[in-house]
Every structure is written in C-alpha cells, then in structure tokens.
C-alpha cells in the first residue's frame, strides 16, 4: 500500500514542502531515499521503539520511504512524526482521508512523546502558503507556530494523540494566540532598564545619540567601568520593534532553536554579547546547512562585541 504525508525541510530561512511517500510490499528490508542525513536515517530506530512502547508494531514488510523532492537535502529529526504516521497508515492502522490536509513535524522519543523541533514558525508560514488546513507540531512549539493566522495549529504531546486525531477519535482544539495583544503587552517589559543607570552622564548621552540615530559605538575603559552594564540596557531606549520586525526576528530564533517554551513572538530587540574567543564561523553563521550566527541573532537588535578583534 502506498501512503503520502507532508512535512517541511528548513534550509536557512527557506522552507520547502516535503512529501513523505511510504510503500509496503512483501519482504523485511527498510529503504530510505531522498538525500536524508544521518539524523533522518536514524529515525527508523526511534520510530520502531516508539511504536512498540505505545502498543503498535513496526510492520514486518519491505518498507520503502521516499522524501520528495529527492534532490533537496533533508536534515534533522523533525521528519520522525510524518514518517511514523505514513508507516502506520500504509499498514492500515490510520485512516488516510485526512493525511493530505495536514502538515506534520516532530521528533519522536522512544516512549512516543513528541520533542520540540527547530523552525516551527517558518514551517507554519509555509503550510499556510501551501493551503494546508492545519499543522501538527509538538506541544512545546504550538504557541510559536500558532502566531500564523488562517491556519489550524495543533500541539500534540505524543504519537498516540496524533493517531487519535487523524482517526477522528477524541476532540482536539487548535491553539489560538492573539499575537498582536501579546506583542504589545510585552513590548516594554525589560529586565534591564536604562533608567537603572546612575551617573555616567557623558556615556548615557552618547548611548542616547547612538540609539536615536542608529549609530555604532566603541566603548573604551578598564574592566568594571560599566561598559557591559550599559550596553545590556541599550535595547530599552531603542525604538520598539514593529510587528513585521518581530516576526522576522522570531523566524531567525525559531530556526536557531532558541525560542523559549510558551513564547509566541519576540517583542523586544535582541541583545547578543558573544565571548571574545568566538570563531568567525559562529559569529557569521552559514555552513552546508545554514544556521544563524551571532550577527544574524542580533538582527533588529544590539550586537555587543566585547573584546572581539
């Protein structure tokens, strides 16, 4: 039996819809095609253990899996959930009539629990663009993905929940997030505020001018003179993020896997202070599987390069 499910591959800020095709025939082999990296290939072992621990068995058959388009590299563990669902559906354990309506992403634990993944927000944006009815993500990623309107986003705790949902058993409500309200409610809640600084009038004036004009600063002084202390408070006097800037920044942090749980949008300008021994690669980012560096993580915010030459 041939079954198709849908997920997404994240490459930098670009997201590509991936169709997971699973075919079961007589035999005992497992074949995975479609430029999958080691983490994707290891999903076979995670899925087999997860199915066993929730009361299912990995089918005794010749299982052929294709991740299409096959010429785009697939990386990470977010393909576990769509692969497991496709294998169960091909083994006639899940109804197939709703599989084409939902995009699925999630890493499987050996007990069947869903673990958080990177890039939930850009994946949700892609799912809406592709006209999917909904997106199924781990519970930890649901608020991040639910920022996208006109898309039903379901946060699931384990594989059994996803199976029940697709089989129409039980009631599951999509997550609702008032992104605008949360954004404006947290926009001025700073842990470190510029008003805390006492004295240092000349430096404060320089920081105010730099914040107003968007200028760079070079701060020179002995250790303990207050350079880092004042730099950390600079975001509190910068113009507040717009909603578009917040969405852009949140996507970068989502791809980097640096979103806090139960966080929907980053509402304050980020502050990054990398150690002075940081490598050029970590500072700039990139690579074969592009990841944000410190410069990208400071986008729309402040990069405090303390002692970096």
Structural class: alpha/beta
Query: Tally the helices: what do you get?
Result: 12
Low-confidence stretches: none
CATH C-level of the largest domain: Alpha Beta
Instruction: Please tell me the overall pLDDT.
Output: 92
CATH topology of the largest domain: Ribosomal Protein S5, domain 2
Query: What does the overall shape look like?
Result: elongated
* Distance between the ends: 60 Å
Quickly count the domains. 2
What share of residues are in beta strands? 15-25%
* Share in helix: 25-40%
CA radius of gyration: 23 Å
Main sheet summary: 4 strands, mixed
Strand arrangement across the biggest beta sheet: 1-2-4-3
* SSE run: EEEHHEHEEEHEHEHHHHHEHEEHE
Topology, number of strands: 13
Topology, pairings included?
Elements: E1 2-11, E2 14-25, E3 30-33, H1 38-41, H2 43-53, E4 62-68, H3 80-90, E5 102-104, E6 107-108, E7 114-115, H4 120-129, E8 134-138, H5 142-145, E9 152-156, H6 159-166, H7 179-185, H8 201-213, H9 227-232, H10 243-256, E10 271-272, H11 280-284, E11 285-286, E12 291-292, H12 294-297, E13 302-303
Parallel strand pairs: 3-4, 5-8, 8-9, 10-13
Antiparallel strand pairs: 1-2, 2-4, 6-7, 11-12
Helix pairs in contact: 2-3
Structural commentary:
There is one protein chain. The protein has helices at 38-41, 43-53, 80-90, 120-129, 142-145, 159-166, 179-185, 201-213, 227-232, 243-256, 280-284, 294-297, and strands spanning 2-11, 14-25, 30-33, 62-68, 102-104, 107-108, 114-115, 134-138, 152-156, 271-272, 285-286, 291-292, 302-303. It has 309 residues and is α/β, with parallel strands linked by helices. The strands form 5 sheets. Strands 1-2-4-3 form a 4-stranded mixed beta sheet. Helix 2 (43-53) packs across helix 3. The protein is elongated, with a radius of gyration of 23 Å. The mean pLDDT is 92.
């Amino acid at each position: 039996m041939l079954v198709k499910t849908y997920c997404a591959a994240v490459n930098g800020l670009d997201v590509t819809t991936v169709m997971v095709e699973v075919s079961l025939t007589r035999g005992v082999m497992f074949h995975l095609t479609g430029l999958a990296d080691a983490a994707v290939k290891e999903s076979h072992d995670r899925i087999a253990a997860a199915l066993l621990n929730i009361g299912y068995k990995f089918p005794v058959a010749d299982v052929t899996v294709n991740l299409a388009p096959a010429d785009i590299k697939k990386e990470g563990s977010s393909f576990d959930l769509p692969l497991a669902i496709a294998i169960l559906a091909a083994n006639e354990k899940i109804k197939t009539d709703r599989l084409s309506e939902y995009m699925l992403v999630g890493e499987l634990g050996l007990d069947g629990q869903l673990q958080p993944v990177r890039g939930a927000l850009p994946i949700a944006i892609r799912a809406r663009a592709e006209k999917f009815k909904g997106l199924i993500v781990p519970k930890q990623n649901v608020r991040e993905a639910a920022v996208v309107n006109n898309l039903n986003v379901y946060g699931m705790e384990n594989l059994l929940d996803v199976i029940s949902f697709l089989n129409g058993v039980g009631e599951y409500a999509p997550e609702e997030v008032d992104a605008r309200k949360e954004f404006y409610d947290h926009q001025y809640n700073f842990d470190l505020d510029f008003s805390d600084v006492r004295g240092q009038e000349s430096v404060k004036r320089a920081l105010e001018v730099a914040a107003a004009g968007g200028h760079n600063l070079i701060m020179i002084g002995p250790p303990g003179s207050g350079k880092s202390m004042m730099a950390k408070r600079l975001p509190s006097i910068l113009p507040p993020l717009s909603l578009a800037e917040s969405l852009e920044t949140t996507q970068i942090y989502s791809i980097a896997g640096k979103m806090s749980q139960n966080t929907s949008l980053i509402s304050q300008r980020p502050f990054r202070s990398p150690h002075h021994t940081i490598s050029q690669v970590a500072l700039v980012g990139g690579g074969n599987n592009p990841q944000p560096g410190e410069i990208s993580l400071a986008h729309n915010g402040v990069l405090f390069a303390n002692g970096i030459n």
